[in-house]
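Inputs:
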Amino acid sequence: MSRFRLAVRGAAIAALALATLTVARAAAPAAVSIENFAFAQPSITVAAGTTVTWTNNDDIPHTVRAVDGSFHSAALDSADHYSFTFTKPGVYSYFCSLHPKMVGKVIVK
Amino acid sequence: MSECDEGGESRRGFLKCMTWAGTGLVWTLAGGVPASIGLAAAAAAVPARPFSFVQVSDSHIGFSKPFNPDARVTFREAIAKIAAMPQKPDFIIHTGDVSQLSKPDQFDDADQILKSAGLPVFYVPGEHDVLDEGQGKFFLDRHGHGATGGGWHSFDHGGVHFVALINVMNLKAGGAGSLGADQLAWLQNDLAARSASTPIVVFTHIPLWAVYPDWGWATDDAAQAMTWLRRFGSVTVLNGHIHQIQQKVEGHVAFYTARSTAFPQAAPGAPGASPGPLAVPADKLRSVLGVREVSFVSRNHPLPVTDQTLA
C-alpha cells in the first residue's frame, strides 16, 4: 500500500470518526442552566429528536414557556428541572413567564 | 423643585430619587414634599371621617432560605404590627406574591395569618400567585369574588375610589408587566364615571412606573392607564414586586413601592445584582421588611404614607 493510499484511508477514517462524533454529539441530550435571572445558554442548536433539559439553578422560581405555546413547564423551584424533546426542525423561542425579560431559543436542525 | 418631582427618566436622576429600604424610615408625603398635614384643617375640609388602611406585600409564603427559613414567621410579625397600630385600619390590601409557588397550602397559611388581624383584606395577585396550571385559577377562586374579567375590580370607601389592577397575566417574551386591552377598556369605563375631585388609590403588583425596565420592573402598557388617571386631583399608586421602598411623583400622581414581609431585593441595577432575593445577615432581616399605613385625611392632598419595618 502506497503512502498516498494510506494517507487517503487515514483521512477517510478520520472523517468517518468525526462524522460519528458529530452525530453522537447532536443526538446527546442538551442542557440549559437557569442562573442569575437568565438562561445561561440563551441559544442552542440541536438535532431533531434531541431532548433539552432546563435546570433552575437560581434561588427563585422560574418557568420555561414557548412563545408559540407549543411547550411549557410548570413553575420550577430551585433545583427543579424540565425536559422537552424537539422532534421537528425549526427555531423555538421561549421565555420565563414569571420574568419575561428572560428569553432563549432552541434551533433544531 | 427636586429632580424627583420632575420625574426625571434618566438613570442618574432615578438613582437620586431612590429611598433605600433598611433605615427604619417613617415619612409622610404631600405633593412629593415631606410635610405634616393639619388634621383640624383637613377635618374642616372633609366632612367624611379620616380613616387609614394598611398595605402588605410579597409575603411569599413558602419561601425558605437560610436567612429567612420560614416566611410565615415574618408575615405573622407583620400582621402583629398591624394589630398593634394605635389607629385601627379599616382594611388591608395585599399587593401580591401572597405565595411562593401558588400552592393551596401556601394560600391557606397566608389566609390563616391574615385572619388574625380581624380586618377585611383585598388582594391582587403577583406572578408567584398565578403559577398553577389554570394560570391564576387557584387565586381567583379564593380572592376574585365579585371581580370582573381577569380579576380586576374597584370599590369605594370613605369617599376614596380604590382600583385593583392585575398586571401579572399573559406576560410577553421580552416584556415587563402587562394590563392588557380588556382591563384597560374596563379601567377607562370605571374611571369615566368619577369626578376629578374623587381621590383615587390604585393598587397592583408590578410597578406602573418604569422603576427599572431591564429587570422587568415596569408595566409595558401603563402609559395608557396614566392618561385616564392624570385628570384626578389625587392619585396614589401602590405596588409591591421589588421588595423595597421607592417613590416618585408625577403631577398629582404619587407612586409608591412597598417592602416585602419575606426578603429584600437589590437596589435597581445594583452592580452584579439580579432581581432575586438579596441575602442579608439574620440580625438585619427585619430592618428591611415591613408594612405600610396609608391615611386619608384630606381630599386636597395625596394620601400620607407611613412605612414601618419589622425591626
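Residues 130 and 136 of chain B are 4 Å apart (CA to CA). Flag for discussion at group meeting.
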